[in-house]
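Protocol step 4 of 5: obtain the predicted structure for the target chain.
Materials: sequence only (see below). No template structures provided, no constraints applied. The aim of this step is simply to have a reference model before the mutagenesis design in step 5. Sequence pasted as it appears in the construct record:
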Amino acid sequence: MSETVKPRASRRNFLKVAGLAGAGAIAMPQVSRAQTVTWKYQSTWPTKDIFHEFAGDFAKRVNDMSGGRLKLDVLAAGAVVPAFQMQDAVHAGILDAGHGVSAYWYGKNKAFSLFGTPPALGWDAHSFLAWMNYGGGYELYNDLVQNQLKLNLVGILTGPMPCQPLGWFKKELKTADDFKGLKYRTVGLAADLMREMGAAVTILAGGEIVPALERGVIDGAEFNNPSSDSLLGFQDVAKVYMLQSYHQAAESFEILFNKGKFDALSPELKAIVKYSAESASSDMNWKALDRYSKDLEVLRGKGVNIVQTPEAILKAQLAAWDKVIEKLGADPFFKKVVDSQKAWVQRSVAYERVNTPSREIAYTHFFKA
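Step 4 output (structure tokens):
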């Protein structure tokens, strides 16, 4: 009985095969990296604003992690279109992506502001982003953007903002009656809230606020935080800075992408965009805590009178929120979103309240403040 003998592979043939396989393994990433996509990515913020810096922080993560396969070319407000036209430009493909806040699109549907400046239900921006990711928020947001309004957009909510100051005024506000007839700048649902309190609300882009306050076109205004407010020059035209407010207590940023462009990305690049947004969200929170606290002390040193908003005004704001929610809740979709947010807050904040000890007690113990 004869044994079948298999031909022995020569060392030369083995090296040829191995060499081809190795060359292929090296060449594949090079081909992928050669397919570079550059997107025009415009923020709704001036170049020097810390918000534009946040927009750039996200872009750097995408650019670094994609190895250059996807590059976001960061542009400031007005580079291609004015700030309030950014969403339309991304929808139309004039811009590929943009950085702003959902409250800016409140004129198209007031529910947009529920994803940027929702009611002050007892939550903060961290809890709001938790609702977006784990409480059904994204399902409702995508329904609004893509189904109801038929916008060619994909959005990611990112970057929890601290509670926003009530704003800048020529004189201190002491009661809710001080809002009656007050000419005041804000955006989104906060406009409905302040109108409910009797104010005459004007909606202005960031760069228009201080000139309007200086000329007396408005009596008071809010923008966002000590760093951005300082850059805009509020301290040069008003000396009363009132902190604590329920008008925008849980806001985050919104990064928008042209849906056609986003859908064309590979799964890997889509994942890089998503995880870059989540990473930048945490970093933004850390950076904001550092910079805002420093810049508040600088403002104090420049003679700004930093005042905590009286409890009477805060309670009046909550009563006004009741009326705003009731009125706008006549729209079924608006009510559906608010009901989802309330259910999330009722459960999650109940846990936080019973689990988290008082920061005031601890801070006062160590710093006697």
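Step 4 remarks: The chain is about 50% helix and 15% strand. Residues 267-301 form the longest helix (35 residues).
Proceed to step 5.
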